[in-house]
Design goal:
Blueprint lengths: L2 E3 L4 E2 L26 H28 L5
Antiparallel strand pairs: 1-2
């Protein structure tokens, strides 16, 4: 266990971060040709936005538990 002050033996107090659900499965597919279609682009954009939301949720949970500075 890590200590803040090893000489005094004060153990580090830790909080557990709230659970955040796993990211959803990818919905985009590999482009059929050299240039992706609008549908392929839109699917990839939706996946990126979903991952952005998930990362922001993880960061917020870590800030709430004190594992990450505000």
């Amino acid at each position: 266990m890590a200590y803040l002050n090893a000489g005094a033996g004060a153990a580090r107090e830790g909080k557990q971060t709230a659970a955040v659900a796993d990211a959803a499965a990818v919905t985009s597919v590999v482009a059929a040709g050299a240039t992706p279609t609008k549908a392929e682009y839109d699917a990839l954009r939706a996946d990126v936005l979903a991952l952005r939301t998930k990362v922001n949720s993880l960061l917020a949970a870590m800030r709430t538990s004190g594992q990450l500075a505000s």
